[in-house]
Design brief:
By secondary structure, this protein is α/β, with parallel strands linked by helices. Helix content is 35%, strand content 22%. The protein has 25 helices and 23 strands. The strands form five sheets. It has a seven-stranded mixed β-sheet with strand order 8-12-13-14-9-10-11. β12 and β13 form a beta hairpin. The longest helix is centred in the middle third of the chain and has 15 residues.
């Protein structure tokens, strides 16, 4: 472990204008008691985790209970300090459009201290919104009861960052860009994540020996300031930051230091206790706390999968975030077996069986959010590995307009879903968002006069008004048996989670021909291939041609981070190499990477869609068993937009990059 030295940085005493000159000593020391509070590590961790080997070794040899940890901070030269102090007296534009290289992420107000102006007046003065927009928001607030600034946010007139800058100027406080500001993790770890989330406030630095700099979304929350001052034993200096920046910082905070620090203690018999809610108990055994923290961190960062991969010496922990695997931390060998056993106990698997794969399911509550984990164990040459699929029910998008479909494509899809009978299929690889698209369609179709029945594995989102059936192979309830029973239950609309075999395909197609609207998914690379796949599975071509109404193929591409994406020009040669018939260059954006996106240049994902309506000409081709390529060319001539073309449109709109489209779809 490092010696806990903080990297040299700007003199916060001068930048924040703390009253009184600092003592001019050669090596000023800032102390932080480890005690019950977690002590942060050097510079924190970009992932929110540190290497277990280093942390365990360091905590085991250098930290003792109740010991005082000293953090050494380099003091700037006296002349430099005086220059910075003089600069702090000068007014600075509170809403800069650009910054010099080396900017620390701090924007000072034009004046210190709270002003008597209304916040809406400050918004107008900073040109964040027009006077007309503000006046309309004030009128609306009189009847709605919401503050004018909240109405401006909801209308998109101002951004969260713009509102934070206005709040900072209104109260005469500093504004922090947490995507640039170097956060002192030893300060951040002085408060628990529960408190940070409750108050939307995080300590980010020591302004001086007795003062803590706290980034807050609401600087007028005096209760939060008092509580943090009492908990930390420091005076509090408030700065303003956007709420999404604070939320992202909180998600990076972890409490793993004491988990590893206690790893030498004897394991408790609590391992067989069922985990109901995470982040609630501080007295759990180290392995239990370790697993809880890994799962909680995955949920907070929006990971879709958690991988425990043994490599012979230690176990790597990786998260799949926005479709890409990222190394998060490593679990030392002495704790790896216990962590795997803990997960197997939670999933009600046989912990003694390590030679055969097993699968199970875990239901958890993480910070009030219901999360399901699908667990698969994999025996490898280096030991038993685990993969957990994270299903966060609170993050399921069920609004058709938020899926990312172009207007023309969405209209074609919605028109097909409004039919009284027929089959609508959504195709794509695993993890491409097929179930989300079906849920959005069901939300649109869910009315009291319709009986909608679904059979799923698993039920990812519980929707009111639907009868949802969970597949259970242990009891013999498969897709085929569930679908056969559903047909006799007087349904109007049937949703089958996945067509996996001939029997399920046959029943689904026949149900579509007997007066039911059937929604389902299939694994194919594009929309036309769904027809050939059903025929290859054994369904007669005349049944496929008569039953199908529409096929949607889709992928998920990472969206460019709005905070750091950079304009660029894509040469025509690059577009041609990617398979496009381009003769001119294209104006677009490229990823850069910042703290808000974890350095990847991407945040979130957007769907790419290909919607193929089954026309009479395509039905004829299906009866003739024509190749998928021929049907694709015909569908394009009839108005279908291919996946790659939809991707190019989203590149042109600045939502994703050319490299991401090539990664997701390929260049052929």
């Amino acid at each position: 472990m490092s010696d806990l030295r903080q990297p040299a940085g700007p003199d916060l005493h001068a930048i924040f204008g703390i009253d009184g000159a600092p003592e001019k000593v050669a090596d000023p020391m800032i102390s932080a008691h480890s005690g019950s509070a977690d002590v942060g590590l050097e510079g924190g961790s970009e992932n929110g985790f540190e290497s277990y080997g280093e942390v365990g070794e360091g905590l085991g040899t250098t930290l003792e209970s109740g010991a005082e940890v000293e953090l050494e901070v380099e003091r700037a030269a006296d002349d430099d300090w005086e220059e910075e102090a003089d600069a702090a007296e000068q007014p600075v534009e509170p809403s800069p459009t650009g910054h010099e290289p080396g900017w620390s992420g701090i924007t000072r107000p034009s004046r210190r201290g709270s002003s008597s102006r209304f916040l809406t007046d400050v918004i107008i003065a900073m040109q964040l919104a027009t006077a007309r927009q503000v006046e309309d928001a004030i009128e609306t607030s009189r009847s709605s009861g919401s503050p004018p600034e909240r109405i401006l946010l909801d209308q998109g007139a101002i951004t969260h960052d713009g509102l934070a800058r206005a709040l900072a100027e209104r109260y005469g406080l500093d504004h922090l860009d947490l995507g640039v500001f170097q956060v002192d993790m030893s300060a951040a770890n002085l408060v628990s994540t529960t408190i940070a989330k409750r108050y939307q406030a995080v300590p980010v630095a020591f302004a001086d020996k007795r003062t803590l700099l706290v980034a807050m979304a609401d600087p007028s929350n005096v209760l939060a300031v008092d509580d943090i001052a009492i908990m930390t034993g420091h005076e509090v200096r408030v700065a303003v930051a956007p709420p999404d920046d604070i939320t992202a910082l909180i998600s990076r905070l972890d409490r793993l230091e004491d988990v590893v620090g206690n790893s030498t203690e004897e394991q408790q018999a609590e391992e067989d206790a069922e985990v109901v809610a995470l982040h609630e108990s501080d007295e759990d055994a180290p392995v239990i706390k370790l697993v809880n923290q890994i799962v909680a961190q995955a949920v907070e960062r929006g990971a879709s999968d958690i991988h425990f991969a043994p490599d012979g010496k230690e176990t790597r922990v990786r998260f799949r975030i926005d479709g890409v695997l990222q190394d998060i931390t490593t679990v030392p060998r002495r704790m790896a077996a216990g962590a795997v056993s803990r997960v197997k106990i939670m999933a009600e698997l046989d912990i003694a069986e390590k030679r055969l794969p097993q699968d199970g399911r875990i239901g958890l509550v993480v910070d009030g959010r219901h999360v399901d984990l699908r667990v698969v164990t994999l025996p490898s040459v280096h030991g038993e590995g685990i993969v957990m699929r994270v299903l966060d029910k609170s993050n399921v998008v069920v609004d058709m307009e938020k899926l990312g479909m172009a207007d023309h494509e969405r209209e074609r899809f919605e028109h097909s879903c409004q039919e009284t009978h027929g089959a609508v299929l959504v195709t794509g690889p695993t993890g491409s968002g097929k179930s989300t698209t079906l849920y959005a369609a069901l939300q649109m179709l869910n009315t009291p006069e319709k009986n909608i029945i679904t059979v799923e594995d698993p039920v990812e989102y519980e929707m009111a008004g639907l009868t949802q059936v969970q597949v259970s192979n242990k009891t013999g309830l498969t897709f085929a048996t569930g679908l056969r029973a559903m047909v006799r239950a007087d349904p109007d609309i049937i949703m089958v989670g996945e067509i996996r075999d001939k029997e399920t395909a046959q029943i689904a197609i026949e149900s579509a021909l007997t007066g039911h609207l059937v929604l389902s998914t299939l694994h194919t690379n594009d929309a036309p291939s769904a027809i050939t796949r059903l025929i290859e599975m054994g369904v007669e071509p005349f049944l496929v041609a008569s039953a199908l109404e529409c096929v949607v193929a889709q992928r998920l591409a990472r969206m460019l981070c709005p905070s750091c994406k950079r304009r660029m020009i894509i040469p025509a040669k690059v577009l041609q190499d990617s398979g496009y018939k381009a003769v001119m260059e294209l104006e677009a954006y490229e990823p850069v990477g910042c703290r808000r996106c974890g350095g990847s240049g991407y945040r979130g994902r957007v769907g790419l869609y290909e919607v193929m309506k089954i026309s009479p000409e395509i039905q004829t081709m299906a009866l003739e068993r024509r190749p998928a390529e021929v049907m694709r060319d015909l569908a394009v001539s009839q108005g279908m937009v291919r996946l790659r073309d939809d991707g190019l449109n989203k590149v042109r709109m600045g939502r994703t990059s050319m490299a991401e489209i090539a990664r997701v779809i390929g260049t052929n």
